[in-house]
Prior knowledge:
This protein is an alpha+beta fold. It has 42 helices and 41 strands. Helices cover 38% and strands 16% of the residues. It starts with a helix and ends in a 73-residue tail after the last helix. The model is unreliable at 1-11, 438-567, 865-940, 1290-1312 and 1335-1432 (pLDDT under 50).
Amino acid sequence: MGTKTQPQLAKDNERRIRANDKEFNSQFKYHNNYIKTSKYSIFTFLPFNLLEQFQRLANFYFLCLLVLQLIPAISSLTPVTTAIPLIGVLTLTAVKDAYDDIQRHLSDSQVNNRKSKTLRNGKLVEAKWSEVQVGDVIRLDNNQFVAADILLLSTSEPNGLCFIETAELDGETNLKAKQCLTETIELGDRNDSLWNFNGEIICERPNNLLNKFDGTLMWRGQRFALDNEKILLRGCVLRNTQWCYGVVVFAGVDTKLMQNSGKTQFKSTGVDRLLNFIIIGIVLFLVSICAFFAIGCSVWEGFIGQHFQAYLPWERIIPKDYIPTGATVIGLLVFFSYAIVLNTVVPISLYVSVEVIRFVQSFLINWDEEMYYATTNTYAKARTTTLNEELGQIQYIFSDKTGTLTQNIMTFNKCSINGRTYGDVIDLRTGELIEITEQQTIFQNSNTGPPVGGAAATAASAQSPPIILVHKAEVHAKKSSVVVTVSGETQPVPARSELSRKQVRYSAPSRSQEDNPDGLAPKASGGLSPASCHEDQRRSSLGAGLGGCFKRSGPVRQLSRTSSCDKAVQSVDFSANPHHESDFRWYDRTLLDAVRSDEEHSHVFFRLLALCHTVMAETVDGKLEYQAQSPDEAALVSAARNFGFVFRTRTPNSITIEVMGRTEEYELLNILDFNNVRKRMSVILRRGDSVVLYCKGADNVIYDRLHGGQEDLKARTQDHLNKFAGEGLRTLVLAERRLTEQYYNDWRMRQQEAALSLDSREQKLNAIYEEIESEMQLVGVTAIEDKLQDGVPKSIANLQNAGIKIWVLTGDKQETAINIGYSCQLLTDELADVFIVDGNSVEEVEKQLRQFKESIKIYNRFRPGGSEGLERLNSESTIDPMSAAITQTSAFMQETNLPPTPPPPPAISVVTFSAECNDLFGDEKKSVGGGTASIMIDENTGFALVVNGHSLVHCLSPELENKFLDIASQCKAVICCRVTPLQKALVVELIKRAKNAVTLAIGDGANDVSMIKAAHIGVGISGQEGLQAVLSSDYAIAQFRYLERLLLVHGRWSYYRMCKFLRYFFYKNFAFTLCHCWYSLFCGFSAQTVFDPMFISVYNLFYTSLPVLALGVFEQDVSDKNSLEFPRLYTPGLKSELFNIREFIYSVLHGAFTSLILFLIPYGVYKDGVSQHGFIVSDHMTLGAVVATILIVDNTAQISLYTSYWTVVNHVTIWGSLVWYFVLDYFYNYVIGGPYVGSLTQAMKDMTFWFTMLITVMMLVSPVLAYKFYLLDVHPSLSDKIRQKSLKKIHSRASSNVRRTASSRRGRRSVRSGYAFAHQEGFGRLITSGKIMHKLPQDFAFPLGLGTKKTQALHNNLTSADGTTEKTNHSGQDMANNNNTNLRHNQNQNHSSMADITGDGRSSGGEGGRGSGGSEDMSPRAPCQDLDTINL
């Protein structure tokens, strides 16, 4: 007993596991590795499902009615009328729930039956995942999923290293390195040694912290510390490692993957919740009506009914001795009788119809070809059928970043080398920048053939070559400095006046050279000359013939296609390089020409990229492949590879590269690795007698460590940094330093002393690193694009225009998230400011929130629209009021390390003046003179909030929760960085609870599962990152851009259809049911029905069900195209305008009015009525048949007016139901022999019936028509305006022709060096220690003979890097901006780079005119469509 007490006590505070000891581990009753996400089994399905269904108020209500109908004394209707619909609803729901649970069972079975090699009795056996137990030693092979959370024991790689991919956990596809204890490496793959391993692990309890693990291994009398670097988590995939062994620490539901899954919550829509509330109200109304009729019946029986017992005898159970008692008992029975008769105000068919509509709408989502992603052959999938209309009411979207907004693919986009920019391409005809988008389009190169694959434009050619695959190009009116000539080369264009003297001639069919002395025609003249059309083999950077593919950031101008041929945009051909990558794209040929012509600075630039990194190279199937710690590093090394500087291999103290076919080997002396404090990494290399330090890092970090005397180069490069950062690119600054052998040896000794120090080691090392990383020479700048998924900026812009607030919850670092925010247009320059919360304590966070609130108050006080803002604008602004968007410059984005301060009031003036903006959101404001000029407040202005993970902890605390919400609710966008999966769910829960808002969470990895389950709607991205998010989601889509269609089209339609369905359904049922109430006034409150009981039973089932179902399935007010084009159509769903208490009351009153007219007019006509043949027609059955027929006709007329979108199904169901009524009535009465036989037939023979029907229907329809015309005429909705083409077309966003895409680069205030901030600590420590090497070399010799004469050329190149080049000055040219860097280069070179030139020849400086000239030129882009930031 005593032996078991100690482990049991330990279990409460910690977890004890002994490897290969099943008996020891079993006493703790740890969970096995079996996973169960299903809800039912075969035996528990029926009781549990029925219990769950009867928890719905409506189902329980109808069950009670069914019980009442079984009592003959109080029921005037057969129980079948309630039993059949109730059984049908329960069955339909049960089948759907069973299907969903079967899918869960199949998913569970697939996971549990995966195979894993487990060590049992000294032998390796293949076992199912579900059979794996805590303490088992398992083997993993390359590319295999990790079955459970395991402690790594040994691997096939030297030094116990292995690589894993964590896409299932966090959506990131880059590899991460793990390393086992050096003491367990010796176990290897020997089964006997591994079976004899009996180490005891003491670790933390199961938790959901993916990046944290604390534990201790006790083995052979020693204790070894365990951390997260030695743990492989379930859901990871083993990569680039032949095998590894590990002991299971957490299994099944205890694994961190499952701990992050969260609990599955029952989700219901807002319409469901409102329906439940309405049903309670209807039941109370029903009870009050029944009570009133019971009292009326008691009074009537007590005073009148007692005298007619001969004709209407009382029931036997009613006492006849004392009249008041008998009357009271009758009244009590009548109460329940009326409860049964009037139950059709909430018919069971309502829920049947709702389920059917949702079911069909789910299939419409699944079948939508517009949401099909051909790359992965994936359709959108509605994984639930109960939440469709909620998609039309989303107020907050919470999105992951990596893998959801981005592809997590980095591309080398642009660069600056020695003050010259590369990567931009200019259209020769217009002088405008060509932006190359990632969307590829197939063009048919013929004069007559249509475009293939839905291309936006055709590329005509006289010679009709085969189909080509090109990239779309967008022309943006940007500051130009390079043109593409007809020979495929680029030339510098310092200004328009300069271009007129230096332009390369090309002929244009419609305009001669003399007609356009500036050389840049104001109108496109048709492309390149015919002579140039035959030079397809030349590698041109210009795509002159894309026609409709050209889009401008100003008003759209269609380029004419009058020339005989056009050319498509083509990337530079790297095929001469045997190591080039086929998918690498680069469009500026000048850089490749510079490299091939042995231009010194470009060689230094790419040599640095090929050497300064921690990338690992390996050859797979004869092809060189790289494995990098981050996609950024892989992109830079890949760029160097394609330009001829190929990183081949490395050892712990050497790096081998291939430069233009020549192999170069460097001795690796030191790697000064990256960390979040240094924000840079360096390598120190030796080749021959030369020692050089290469460094790359954040711009502010590198600039502080450059030597003096290069201010001009620094200024030009700074301008390029501003330009690149303004385009949303992740920038990195490169620098080098030449070291003497003596200085390096001295530094090396001091570095070793610091590394061996036991006191303040990190601080001493940082100081040593600071010393050598100084006095560096600036080399250049790289600009990397983190590729967004296609269509993300447009989708976000549309969703924001629809009124939806978007929050990004990401585990990435702050600056990375901000850069992505700008790239995807979540953050824009139109924002007044971006607040950053990064305090480390409650006091700091509270102080920041208080300052931000003051800033918002100041902004609102000086907000345009009031007299202050407009007066200041009129008095101070000299800018053209029809083309300027004036916004505040962000004080916080310039210096994120300082505590933010409130912006000065005069700097805030956010106004947009534009003739095109007055109808942006449907609010027309015409000028006094009746012209087109208008003044409006730009709705794109406002604030954004960025919160760090450690600050978010304090923001979510009870004391700051309200302050955080107050500020966040006033921001257009919120970005939360470095958040844990649990924090994501807490943020969603906070908004749900505090704002009572409808939320949607979208993600792609296991770290998003908690958030997805917490939100009202969970959307999973089914991509390469795994299926954890999809399996937990309500809807699955392949790309983020499909979310726009899912919400704005399917969500809006579903909500619109459901609301219209409910309004009409309640109307028709109240019109039907309340006829009994009016009739009770004439039948002594006896619960006698006015209609045939069979008509009551089948009214909702056969006569009116199909038309209203067709309405709920197919109805639409505007097309899907218009729904996307006008996002503001989504607004009614946000405000629940289409169905609410007010709309419900209106439907009830309309139904009550209809029932009153329906009953009173026929009753007045047929009371004491006689037919023309002398027959009496004032009988009860004739009245009931006439009222029922007029009711059906009125229903048909009303739903015809309700229907906006007619299909064949609508026609068949509406008119077919009317015909079906007469067919079924005839069949029932004449064939089956119903009690009302002949009543309707006789009535229809008399003209009285037809006139009565006509008058009644006209009285019922006329008010409805009048009200509809009144609304259309006086208060038209946006959808009404869209349908009525006579009204002015109102745009809900700036212009549907100008897309806000990621390639639409715009200057903006951005935190640069997103790479440097986002990059994680690399493999530097492992490389230099030799632990990361796949093969340990015998010695580290240099076979190429380092230090020989062969390597002297490199030394000469390196030592001459500081040499200056001759600058060329052109007279008469304005060189106000340092971006005109191509004129500072050697005039003997035939290639040049992109600089930034304004339309009038004056180049603008950096942001806010911070260039050397300090000019404050306006952007040439048109207003409202691409608003620029102008600081007054």
